[in-house]
Write a structure and sequence with these properties.
- The complex is a heterodimer.
- Chain A is of the alpha/beta class.
- Chain A has helices spanning 45-58, 76-85, 101-110, 124-131, 136-150, 168-177, 192-196, 198-201, 205-221, 282-288, 290-294, 319-326, 342-354, and strands at residues 14-18, 62-66, 89-94, 114-118, 154-160, 182-187, 227-231, 251-254, 260-261.
- In chain A, strands 7-6-5-4-3-2-1-8-9 form a 9-stranded mixed sheet, with helices on one face.
- In chain A, helix 1 (45-58) links the parallel strand 1 (14-18) and strand 2 (62-66).
- The radius of gyration of chain A is 20 Å and the shape is globular.
- Chain B is of the alpha+beta class.
- In chain B, 39% of the residues lie in helices and 17% in strands.
- Chain B is built from 3 helices and 3 strands.
- In chain B, strand 1 and strand 2 form a beta hairpin.
- In chain B, helix 2 packs across helix 3 (73-89).
- The chains are: A alpha/beta, B alpha+beta.
- At the A-B interface, loops of A face strand 1 of B.
Chain lengths: 370, 95
């Protein structure tokens, strides 16, 4: 490879491969964009393999195979075999739908390192309603058993919101019962579909606080039994999250059509120019594409971030959230109590608990990109 | 598992599936790769983990290290036990 990153740009450590936007579930907080890619536009097997080879050569350690539902791709096991052969650690992020015993055997033989299974709630009826898919919960239990039988480590992934927040601790218990070594309790982040559904998803501050305290207590109590990763709800925080560990510092995303993004929501920022892996190598995109360089580092910042002692800690928070709530992607993430727009978070919290919406707008692949 | 920070002499520590000790040729460092985790590993830790095959028990591992590095087995046992206990808590080592 002739292109190298400059000494000031550290190589990426993780790559999220959104293999497809096809998915049988309709979770109302899906992180995919509102306008999704159709099957015919997806990258072919050979292009994905090239991307994975380039990722390994660029310094990527973990590859996260996601979607949509990655099992909707018939070449999933072939892609995992390739990732393994170039030394990448493979993490499958799946709804479990489509993981039959035959598919599981192929994934196992391909050398899959880690299986991450989403579960929508600890009780079947609610879980199926959230997923918009009847029978999803019982299917997922079957898939967890298949994973366990292979010896591949299992993580249970649970997104928390108003419909399930009172059962956060039950989700941890369910994960242990299913044999998971790790559980991710992620409070909903309001982007894309979740932002559309915010008034149906946002829990009250009291409910969120109780759940947070329960999960934090379980972390220490269950050390050695299960690893708990707790993604806190940023609307309730004082400081913003270090979104993606800082823009273009650690990870990159490849969309089903090959566009390379600094984060899954980056396409919501109109000023950014994305490059496609069909036209450029991954390392070239990482080092040189405008989208990665626009908010890399701290040079783009304005006040209050510019003079903030935390600017290398949280990197001003999330650019997509700053744009969505303030109209300016260079503004401080309004989650920060120092942001002049922080009132917008307070207003959203109040509005969502005052105007409770019961129905979800389910995530469906109904629109095509022009 | 709960509350004991000592690894038993007869325990046979090993890396479970999904946890890999790997030399990163690009960054020129050893890593322990696990689900959603990358731990940078120093040279002493590499020597410990290379011996965690699931065949050797803690006593064997400590004796081997003491011999190879001409160090006090009592001190080595203490360090190895504390290091491995930390990884057990993170589910990156099974006993």
């Amino acid at each position: 490879m002739t292109i190298t990153t400059s000494p000031t740009i550290a190589p990426p450590i993780g790559l999220l491969a959104e293999l497809t936007h096809r998915c049988p579930l309709g979770c109302p907080y899906c992180s995919n964009p509102l306008s999704m890619d159709m099957a015919a536009q997806e990258l072919d097997t050979e292009t994905w393999k090239r991307i994975f080879s380039e990722a390994a050569a660029a310094g990527v350690l973990h590859v996260h195979l996601s979607g949509g539902e990655p099992a909707a791709r018939k070449d999933l096991a072939e892609l995992i075999t390739h990732c393994t052969s170039v030394g990448l650690y493979t993490n499958l992020i799946t709804s479990g739908i489509g993981i039959t015993p035959a598919v599981m055997a192929k994934l196992n033989a391909a050398g899959l390192d880690h299986f991450q299974l989403s579960i929508q709630d600890s009780v079947a009826e609610s879980a199926d309603k959230i997923a918009g898919y009847k029978g999803a919960f019982s299917k997922k239990r079957e898939v967890a058993a298949l994973v366990l039988a292979t010896g591949i480590p299992l993580t249970i992934n649970a997104v928390m919101h108003r419909a399930n927040i009172t059962r956060a601790a039950d989700m941890v218990k369910l994960a242990i019962e299913l044999g998971a070594r790790r559980v991710e309790i992620a409070h909903t982040q309001y982007y894309g579909w979740a932002k559309v559904n915010r008034d149906a998803l946002m829990p009250s501050r009291e409910e969120a606080d109780i759940a947070i305290a329960e999960i934090e207590a379980l972390k220490a109590e269950l050390a050695g039994t299960i690893v708990i990763d707790h993604v806190l709800p940023d609307y309730h925080a004082r400081f913003p999250k270090a979104c993606m560990g800082g823009w273009a510092r650690r990870t990159l995303n490849v969309t089903p059509t090959g566009k390379v993004l600094p984060c899954h929501a980056a396409e919501t920022i109109p000023e950014l120019e994305f490059w496609n892996s069909r036209d450029h190598t991954l390392l070239d995109i990482w080092a040189n594409s405008p989208a990665f360089n626009t908010y890399r580092g701290t040079g783009w910042m304005k006040e209050p971030c510019l003079s903030c002692e935390r600017k290398e800690i949280d990197f001003g928070g999330c650019r997509c959230q700053a744009l969505a709530l303030t109209g300016d992607a260079r503004a401080a993430d309004p989650v920060c109590h120092l942001s002049p727009d922080h009132i917008k978070i307070e207003e959203a919290l109040t509005a969502s608990t005052d105007n409770i919406v019961m129905d979800y707008r389910y995530r469906r692949l109904e629109k095509t990109k022009s | 598992m709960n509350g004991f920070d000592e690894i038993a002499d007869a325990a046979r520590p090993h890396l479970p599936r999904g946890v890999r000790l790997r030399f990163d040729a690009i960054r020129k460092e050893w890593n322990l790769l696990a689900p959603e985790r990358v731990l940078k590993i120093d040279s002493i830790a590499v020597e410990i983990l290379k011996r965690c095959s699931g065949e050797a028990c803690l006593t064997d591992i400590v004796a081997d290290l003491a011999q190879n590095f001409a160090a006090d087995p009592v001190l080595i046992r203490k360090d190895v036990s504390a290091f491995l206990h930390g990884l057990v808590q993170k589910r990156m080592i099974d006993l």
